[in-house]
Amino acid sequence: MVAPLYTTDSGLLFHAGKILVVTVGLPARGKTHISRALERYLRWAGVKTQVISLGDYRRKILGGAQKLPSDYFTLGEKSPETMALRRRIQDGCEQQIWDFFHAGGQVVIYDANNGSVAQRQRVGTKFDKEGVHIIMLESICDDPKIVERNIRSVKISSPDYRGWDPDKAVEDYYGRIRGHEKHYETVDELTWPFIRIINVGEKIMVNDIRGYLQSRIVFFLMNIHNKYRTIYFARADADLSPTGWEYAERLKDFVLERRAKSLQQRGIDPKTNRLVIWTSARRRAHHTAWPFIAAADPRTPGGPQCSVKVIEKPQMSEINPGVWDGLSPDEAKKFYPEEWARFVKDPYSFRAPRAESYHDLSVRLEPTLLELERVQEDLLIIGHASVIRCLLAYLIGLPASEIPAIEVARGDLLEVVPASYGVHSQAYHFWDGPGRKLGDHDTMAEKNETNFYENYAEDTKGKRRIGQEEESAV
Amino acid sequence: MAEQNPTSPVRPAFQLELQDLDLVDNALATQNKETTPVHSLEIGTRPTPFGAGGPIRLASQASTPPRSVVGIGGKVAKPDYSEAKIVLAMVGLPARGKSYLSNKLMRYLQWLEYDVKVFNVGQLRRSRAKQKKEQSGVKEDHTASYFSHNNVEATRLRDALAEDSLEMLINWLKAGGNVGIHDATNSTRARRAKIEARVAKEKGIVVIFLESVCDDPAIIAANVALKVSSGDPDYKDTSPEDAKRDFIRRIKEYEAVYETITEPHLSYLRITNVGNQATACRIHGYLQSRIAFYLMNLHLKPRSIFFSRHGESQFNVEGKIGGDSPLSERGLRYASALPDLIKDNIGDAPLTVWTSTLQRTIQTGQHLSYTKLTWKSLDELDAGVCDGMTYEEIEQAYPEDFANRDEDKFNYRYRGGESYRDVVIRLEPVIMELERQDNILIIGHQAILRCLYAYFHNLPQADLPYIKIPLHTVIKLTPKAYGCDEERYTLPIGAVDTHRPKPKAPQPEVKAYSGREYYDGNA
What we know:
The complex is a heterodimer. In chain A, strand 5 (about 195-200) and strand 6 (about 205) form a beta hairpin. Chain A is built from 18 helices and 14 strands. Mean pLDDT of chain A is about 85; it is low at about 440-450 and about 470-474. Chain A is globular. In chain A, helix 3 crosses helix 4 and helix 12 packs across helix 13 (about 335-345). Chain A is of the alpha/beta class. The two termini of chain B are about 40 Å apart. In chain B, a hairpin with a 4-residue loop joins strand 6 (about 270) and strand 7. The model of chain B is unreliable at about 1-15 and about 30-75 (pLDDT under 50). Chain B has a six-stranded mixed β-sheet, sandwiched between helices. Chain B has a six-stranded mixed β-sheet with strand order 10-9-12-8-13-14. In chain B, strands 1-11 form a two-stranded antiparallel ribbon. The interface between A and B is large, with 48 and 48 residues. Strand 6 (about 205) of chain A pairs antiparallel with strand 7 (about 275-280) of chain B. Chain B: This is Bifunctional 6-phosphofructo-2-kinase/fructose-2,6-bisphosphate 2-phosphatase. Chain A: This is Bifunctional 6-phosphofructo-2-kinase/fructose-2,6-bisphosphate 2-phosphatase. Chain A: It comes from Artomyces pyxidatus.
């Protein structure tokens, strides 16, 4: 996102050099989750970043665990054949790291266990010799619940356990962890700069972490967690007209229904599990949340339908259209032909007179993004299309240039579930009132929206549609 | 040393013994040598200082402009920080760099336009005692015995002072501040629990503790030396020798009751040896993480930062702004003379040269034989459509704009270009890198160096665009515990003056200041 300003002769950013983040930790400590989240954030910031996972590489080359020799995961004595096999996998995987660096990459997150001082010394020395900065990133959990949750939600769905009974798989996985525990050495050595994360972000310790990019990594890691949650997005559209109220009412019914389904599957009561709602400070956005507040009222006949907390966020105000405020695209084109041409050429970075560009908006939303990472409950964001586009692009990992073209239609609910290997996103259509379709400008859209940026993607037959059963490849 | 293990018991705090006095002596000797007054600055006196960190002021004096601003270039509002309200309570023994960290952090956050103020309990104590002495003639005893936890009466008084200063801090936050730094020892669990309970009563205000741990005798000795040599009124009529002894006894009084932070529910940061190791526990949220982010990059190694503008360029001669023109003949002479000036100053010490990507800075550094790095983010403020015009041409073509810019230069953004605020934001990564480096020479541009200079001297945003950074002059900044020392070397090579004073207003007074404040500004 900030890339052009800080790119140096070497093609890398901030004169920070190449950085290898080596993950350290027992299995099921959230290493992969942390690695992927960090990769997403750094990419959003414009840093060429890649997670390279030893486990994924091994599965790609050799297939699932059932095809491995029985002593592959047990530490200690191994047969010479197994040793050679492990060596081959390690070398092949590390070759991929070099390939990425040589192709201009700046940060590699090497996702593997690296549980012994000797292993870390080997990998550290190997890359340090070539001028790569090393950071050991250790993840420790002293909360057994986090470990169990990781195993159940991530590990047993891996190809290693295809066709297994879940409880048997969990038991087997604990066995694998015990094998590692015997030989595990926590990062105490001060040889390399390190970051130690305890319970996925609750506590962080660092040694000798310096410089903008390296500290930025720590900065981000302070704000993450890996609890299961769903983030919903919908446009704000309740003016005080009957259609507006209908929209808000339908949104409430639909979200509650979707949520109930998802929560019940996990054995959670949807009536008491709280939903957090963020709205911008615009009255229209806040009004859209009113039906939720009414439904959560304990005086509701038959008891409250849900539990919600509504938070108004002034930082989520729409993109500032500057002198283009109140103009239709046609008018903008007519009165500002020069600017319009530049805007169409690069809608992400073009800044109209006294306006914000999408780039400015992304920068403004960074604190909101970090807060989004931090929220542990289910979250519904009722916002302006421009804001939703920026937040979605971050979560899904879309390049900045695509942000202005992300379609956020009225009457669609976008659902995003962060998972270890990326996010699942899906769009649901819940409402068909006026203003949803293109060319509906004489109705609701016109009354509410004098900022054409908000409908730009839709009016130009949006090029990027999020979610139709799409699982993003992050 | 790093934390051994998250679950292992905490190591005993480092104990300073009286035999470590030698270290103090050495540090003192070095310091006295270092602080021999260098030639003084010619740029006027600084406004009345306040607090450990400098003058009292709101973070941004640059006003938020009305929407009805006319002309083509706009003024851009300050970001909304109204939601950020944090009490940052320091924890640590005396001479562990608490005030240093408070002060640095305040400068950084103020530069980013947060409202920050340090509430130093020591200052409040001295000010109140001074007042008492003036009114009643009774001089309170503030030697080490005052700081003993066995001295019941004094302990009660000190507790009351810490509480008063916390109340002042909370009131200030409620009145619109963002980060109030409670600069006190806060060395026991009981004291921290009190702070926590008090802040919990305030909706929307959070507390984080910042513990400064130091087990490097050299750093502690240097801090003790600074304390007794810098005119601390606690030791006004005391010989340096006695002052040292008394101060070390004071530290020992604190050590006797000191409890490092182990409370698992607290939100805290622990910085060991000024940034080598850090622990962040339950630190969540943008501003909180940002604070941790910054503190990790500090170090205390002595070093200097040199600023130089590029030599005079052809555009300078023609009175044009922006562009990417080569140096003038006089500018080239400056480039040739620069290596000797630098060499005379730092000898064989290592140095890295940073330039922008524009050819006038690269040309200026061409004869320097040090490692050179170019930063796009050091490029001059982008004047958008006005790039390559003279001020007269701009005034003629865009008269309203011209007036706008004069009225509020910090917020004014050229059409298709940048404002000073935009530049500050883009320079943040550079500042962060600068904090961790050793000796650096930055060959830059007028607006860029103004922003960097304002950061090191903690100058208000409204004055920032009027700081004088003349051509063919090297400015040397040496960071000290409470500010930066400054020297300027002007080479006798003529150049045009590109400084435009603020119309119809006095030139803001700027003076380097690195001393420590011992009294509360209200006293």
